[in-house]
Q: What sequence folds into this?
């Protein structure tokens, strides 16, 4: 698949994702993936994944606000032969800035983690940013989320700062907070 096809995917086209696209490694018995824009009908599946992946998941309102703001929201789906419907594997939500894109949420369903899907989603986000002539990707990540930090660091993100008391910590209603690590990826130097 050409770079032009990858950009089309990142912009919401729905062709099948084949072996070797943007570094995605095909595993034995892997189904083909479908990439498409997320929409309101996907919210139940998204919220199910959020609840399984995070102690403080995004709410339905967070996702509806992102949809209404027309933020780039892409999902990877596995076709299910038994039901004829696609099952959501992972997704990202981003926000375009002046010369950067801010990655707001990147999540892979717990059953699909550590299989290359998060890196594939990052590749698609980078392609979208290049297509939109953006030069930076920024994100925040919990300092305790060592798996995500390792992913972002291996991808080429650099630690750029700390946002004090950024994330809620503990049980809902608790005033405890956790710092966020601010990370950046300079597209023109990291390609």
A:
């Amino acid at each position: 698949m050409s770079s032009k096809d990858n950009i089309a995917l990142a912009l919401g086209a729905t062709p099948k994702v084949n072996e070797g696209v943007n570094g995605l490694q095909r595993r034995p018995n892997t189904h083909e993936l479908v990439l498409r824009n997320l929409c309101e009908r996907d919210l139940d599946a998204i919220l199910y994944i959020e609840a399984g992946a995070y102690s403080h998941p995004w709410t339905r309102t967070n996702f509806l606000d992102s949809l209404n703001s027309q933020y780039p929201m892409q999902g990877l789906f596995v076709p299910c032969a038994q039901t004829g419907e696609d099952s959501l594997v992972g997704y990202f939500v981003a926000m375009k800035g002046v010369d950067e894109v801010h990655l707001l949420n990147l999540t892979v369903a717990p059953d699909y983690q550590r299989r290359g899907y998060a890196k594939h989603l990052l590749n698609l986000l980078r392609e979208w940013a290049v297509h939109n002539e953006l030069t930076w990707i920024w994100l925040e990540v919990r300092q305790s989320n060592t798996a995500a930090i390792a992913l972002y660091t291996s991808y080429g993100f650099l630690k750029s700062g700390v946002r004090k008391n950024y994330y809620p910590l503990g049980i809902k209603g608790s005033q405890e907070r956790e710092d966020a690590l601010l990370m950046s990826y300079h597209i023109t130097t990291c390609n």
Notes: The longest helix spans residues 117-131. The CA atoms of residues 80 and 113 lie 18 Å apart.
